[in-house]
Design brief:
The complex is a heterodimer of chains A (479) and B (354). Chain A has 479 residues and is of the alpha+beta class. Chain A contains 21 helices and 16 strands. In chain A, a hairpin with a 2-residue loop joins strand 15 and strand 16. Chain B has 12 helices and 2 strands; from the N terminus they run αααββααααααααα. In chain B, helix 7 crosses helix 8. The chains are: A alpha+beta (479), B mainly alpha (354).
């Protein structure tokens, strides 16, 4: 597996890559990864030992899907597992990632794409792992009042006069054309080049026939050949950037879509659940060497978070109100409780007065939300290839190897099985799987995804890189 | 060479300047302070003294009341996406809220330790040594904790800056050649913004501190070094000016007495340039405090700057009031630091032995 980690071109800011590579090579010597049995037994033997590092600092971004961490702390699940955890808000995803890589943070609430991108060397190179998925869904796309005013009259309405959902991106086509005719770019925001939100808004736009732009090798703008120009803005600054008119819409996690509603500056147009039903969201990101040096700590950390996830989804969401109160404290998400509640308590508010039931908007425990499926990782990798972040073709095996190096269900299972044995979580909450979800539907464009056939999946998209294609500053070549 | 350098304050114009405008005028270089202050009032008559005191208190109070009034009237008319701009009352309430959060945090800290102690006692009683824990309370830092962190950081940065700047300044004042050598560097480095130093310092420190559990947290060292790099210059320049402007007669006396360089330094040079050094230090501390807040904000290092940024990111209906309260506290602390330095400066000037 080692060779796959280093074959990728090491472009970009790689100053820490060297240190990380040294650490990783030491670490890799002792670990064959998740796939072979020897790794499992090492982990299993050590997870019940004494906690190696009880004092931990975890980073997070002010988003409601950091809830499992806040709940694990406030409801005493970390303490139950013998951990003394400090939670530290971070300014943006880059600062958070650097903090984990440099070791100021022991782990963090991460974008699923971050450990994958770091491992393949897109951006800062480092060996990170994702032993647990924090949640499903939880994002939405919001457009400015101006854009909403331009498309709203033409939308088909249901019996109550409310727009029918899901709203396809094709409704934006005339707006984008109008902007183009006036010589203005149509800009939208997302939170990070390898973020879920980036791939979701790209998926939605492309499904509606709008090109979201490609990344060339070494380029992090991703606006080559774009109809809609996407740019990076940290989540909490999204509403302010929209209000300032720099962007016409954005793709972001909660509470920042509800904040646009509350401040009357924008209208959420679609949720990520409508783009891809029950899509995997944030993960817990750790350094690979941290997990290897501290197996018992890692297991305790995972157990505490799994307990918190169960608490969040318990009894049809009876604890969500308390969760909203905890998250609204200034040291966690800090937004007003009403804004957080607008998406956390089984409903989602689109326009003012258009609140709809959205029971699956945030799923933390049900539907195996915590299990890090390899196929989820492969979906993210396919999107990185689709938009040029992975510059050249990779064979299917490369996708499997990369997914298995980063996503670590072995660590998840070691923690979850102990909880099952102790009677804390029901046995049926842990899936029996080879890590692939099988053929998945639920996408807005009706295309199905099978994690075991990544290249076949990529061939299905009308917009997106095809086999043999490369992106240069001038556009797509080859293929 | 002195033309390129700052003109230190020769006398204290603050008698008529209780709000510390002297600090501002002192920053604007090369402007003799005497031009800016009103002529010193005659203090021979008692009535005069009372009048001076009345003037000193009356006008500042009027100024503050007028400001608060204007704030209270104008703030509600500014409508932001976080609601209207908070007025003085809301900001005061936010301050009280921050204090009660501090009290609540201390209570939960005490509860945490009591619980831990109880658990440990139970573990000891049952002979389960493995269950004994000795954890530090891991709650989030409150506003007061952040103030303390910022003060510690600025203290370290300022101490480092002084330790570096005074010897270099002395050398530059004593040696025309050394001065000529460093002058261009000083002139170029002096105006560099802390925001430009920050990424460089961050990268260097991250590479240098590799220990998993360093003596001082990385973030703390980074902030302190940025403060040092930016607050170095006023002390350095003023020390150089003070040293070079020693009365030549004194130096000649030193030569006649055949003083060694160490005696010359401690008996002549230092005493004569101390007032200048302290003037420089006072300016340095002011610069350092301003730089620190920016550094904390940008690099997410703990302290008041991080508090402000976190609140901005929260974007709740309370956030603006809390940020404004923090701004007032930042100003007050800067003012107090300046007063402390001014008192020291006055002390040194009075005890001049030369």
């Amino acid at each position: 597996m080692t060779h796959t980690l280093h074959t990728k071109g090491q472009f970009g800011f790689d100053r820490r890559g060297v240190i990380a590579a040294v650490l990783a090579s030491v670490a890799l010597a002792g670990c064959g990864g998740a796939a072979d049995g020897s790794g499992d037994t090492v982990v299993a033997a050590a997870v019940d030992g004494a906690i190696e590092k009880p004092n931990l600092t975890l980073g997070f971004i002010k988003l409601t899907d950091m809830a499992p961490l806040a709940i694990a702390k406030e409801k005493g699940f970390f303490a139950e597992e013998g951990l003394n955890v400090t939670l530290e808000p971070q300014a943006n995803w880059k600062v958070l990632l650097d903090g984990v890589i440099a070791g100021q943070l022991d782990g963090a609430h991460m974008l699923a794409g971050q450990p994958l991108a770091a491992t393949i060397g897109y951006g800062t190179k480092a060996d990170l792992i994702a032993p647990l998925s924090l949640d499903l869904n939880g994002n939405a796309i919001t457009v400015s009042n101006k854009v909403w005013g331009m498309i709203e009259p033409g939308l088909p309405k249901d019996a109550n006069g409310k727009p029918t959902h899901p709203i396809p991106a094709s409704v934006l086509k005339p707006v984008v054309a109008k902007f183009k005719a006036e010589g203005k770019p149509f800009n939208m925001g997302m939170v990070f080049p390898v973020s879920t939100h980036n791939y979701e808004i790209r998926y939605w736009l492309a499904a509606g026939g709008l090109k979201p732009g490609y990344y060339a090798e070494g380029d992090v703008q991703g606006v080559i050949d774009a109809d809609v120009k996407l740019s990076v803005t940290p989540p909490p600054q999204m509403p302010a950037t929209l209000e300032a008119g720099t962007i016409e819409g954005y793709s972001v996690g909660e509470p920042w879509n509800q904040a646009a509603v509350a401040k009357k500056i924008g209208v959420p147009i679609i949720t990520d659940d409508q783009i891809w039903h029950d899509n995997p969201e944030k993960v817990l990101g750790l350094r690979k060497d941290f997990a290897e040096k501290n197996p018992a700590t890692t297991a305790a950390l995972l157990r505490a978070i799994i307990k918190a996830q169960q608490w969040l989804d318990a009894d049809g969401g009876k604890n969500r109100k308390e969760a909203v109160e905890i998250l609204s404290r200034p040291n966690y998400v800090g937004a007003d409780a009403a804004v957080i509640a607008a998406s956390m308590t089984g409903v989602f508010t689109f326009a003012q007065g258009d609140t709809r039931k959205a029971p699956g908007f945030n799923i933390f425990f049900d539907k195996y939300a915590g299990y890090p499926f390899y196929s989820d990782a492969i979906w993210y990798l396919t999107q990185m290839r689709r938009w040029g972040q992975i510059a050249t073709d990779k064979d299917d095996q490369w996708y499997f190897d990369t997914a298995k190096a980063v996503y670590r269900p072995d660590l998840y299972l070691a923690a979850a099985e102990k909880l099952v044995a102790d009677g804390v979580i029901p046995a049926e909450s842990v899936p029996e799987t080879n890590g692939f979800r099988g053929e998945q539907g639920g996408f807005i464009d009706g295309v199905t995804f099978d994690g075991s056939k990544p290249n076949a999946y990529l061939a299905k998209f009308p917009i997106g890189l095809k086999k043999g294609q490369k992106v240069t500053a001038a556009g797509i070549t080859g293929g | 060479m002195a033309t390129a350098y700052a003109q230190p304050l020769q006398d204290d114009p603050d008698a008529t300047d209780p709000l510390g405008a002297a600090a501002m005028t002192a920053v604007s270089e090369a402007k003799p302070a005497a031009e800016l202050g009103a002529p010193a009032p005659s203090s021979d008559a008692l009535g005069g003294k009372i009048k001076v005191l009345g003037d000193a208190l009356l006008w500042p109070v009027i100024g503050i009341i007028a400001f608060l009034g204007a704030w209270a009237v104008l703030a509600p008319q500014v409508d932001t996406s976080l609601g209207t701009l908070p007025g003085p009352v809301e900001v005061a309430k936010a301050g009280a809220g921050l204090y009660s959060e501090y009290v609540a945090a201390r209570d939960s800290e005490a509860a945490f330790y009591a619980q831990q102690e109880a658990n440990n006692a139970a573990a000891r009683a049952s002979g389960n040594a493995a269950a004994i824990s000795d954890f530090e309370y891991s709650g989030s830092p409150t506003f007061l904790d952040q103030i303390l962190t910022s003060l510690k950081t600025v203290a370290l940065g300022f101490a480092l800056a002084t330790l570096l700047a005074v010897p270099i300044g002395l050398m530059a004042g004593l040696s025309k050649r050394f001065n000529a050598a460093i002058n261009p560097l000083v002139q170029i480095m002096k105006p560099v913004s802390p925001l430009a130093w920050l990424p460089i310092v961050t990268m260097v420190i991250s590479a240098m501190i590799t220990s998993a559990d360093p003596l001082l947290p990385k973030a703390f060292v980074i902030s302190a070094l940025v403060v040092m790099l930016c607050s170095l210059w006023p002390t350095l320049i003023n020390t150089a000016v003070g040293t070079s402007s020693i009365d030549k007669d004194l130096l000649n006396v030193g030569k006649v007495l055949r003083l060694g360089w160490f005696d010359k330094l401690t008996k002549l040079v230092l005493p004569a340039s101390l007032p200048y050094i302290f003037t420089g230090m006072r300016l340095s501390l002011g610069v350092g405090w301003m730089v620190l807040i920016a550094a904390e904000m940008l690099a997410q290092n703990p302290g008041l700057g991080k508090f402000v940024w976190d609140e901005f990111q929260n974007g709740s209906s309370q956030s603006l009031a809390r940020i404004m309260f923090a701004a007032i506290v930042i100003g007050l602390i800067g003012f107090l630091l300046d007063r402390v330095m001014m008192a020291l400066q006055g002390l040194v000037s009075k005890n001049r032995t030369v």
